[in-house]
Amino acid sequence: LSLASELREAIANERLSVEYQPIVDLADGRCRGAEALARWHREGDETIRPDVFVPLAEDTGQATDLTLAILRAILRDLGDNLRAHPEQAINLNITGHDLASDRFGDALRKALREAGVAPSAIKLELTERSLLNEDAIRARLRELRRRGHHIAIDDFGTGYSSLSYLERFELDTLKIDKTFADAIAHEAVTSNVIGHIIEMARSLNLQIVAEGIESAHQVEWLRAQGVEGGQGYHFSRPLSAEAFLDWCRQH
Ligand code: G
Ligand code: G
Ligand code: NA
Ligand code: MN
């Protein structure tokens, strides 16, 4: 069996699982939600990381099936919580393939309706790279947003795109890449760059979540800049659904 067909079976048989990394409100340290991170446990105890199987899914026409399988896993894991606390939103990673697909939007809507979960409880997280196929994607994003989803840009600052695209898309949140949080501890020069990113996000009315936070020093610096959200090992590693719910109750 090739790895691609094994992945197809894993998707069909719901053998993908999800870990949840908390996203906190930097102002008060409270749980705001989480990013859903896909995991594939192959037979024989091997865990394959999304860095490997997401590109594989994209290259073999399975990208949207994968995204929808992760969505179903989130709804199975956290449906009760999302119905009771829709403000603790879960970020679902999506790809350009999903936005280009004719069926993704309707399948997303149908799954949420059947689960009784509000669109605002599932934020859609995508990378700058996913926005490249501009015209097709802009209309799709606008429609998803009109239906109540919030849109976040992941790994911001690592792409090669010009900043002007931010103005052309309707977005809600910028997730600043870990490399910039790393720089807060060390390099004054790069910290300056993060300052400019924060300023630009402000001027575009975007919320900011800093990723890869590993120290209290970084939290202090970001909070002083008015950055709203944070994610990283300083708060928590990615957790099982149950551990995530416990973590949220304690925070
Ligand atoms: O969890 P980990 O550090 O291995 O994640 C690696 C990368 O894979 C991250 O950039 C994350 O955004 C991405 N990723 C995790 N889960 C998913 C998913 O369900 N779909 C997509 N498209 N990307 C994911
Ligand atoms: O590309 P994306 O930003 O979605 O990557 C998320 C991945 O980064 C997750 O798989 C997670 O395991 C990892 N990650 C999250 N927080 C931290 C952190 O504070 N430090 C490090 N080294 N990795 C992190
Ligand atoms: Na992501
Ligand atoms: Mn991320």
TrEMBL record:
Record-annotated EAL domain positions: 1-251
Protein localization: Cell membrane
Coiled-coil portions: none
Domain of life: Bacteria
Protein name: cyclic-guanylate-specific phosphodiesterase
From-to range in the entire protein, with total length: 268 to 518 of 518
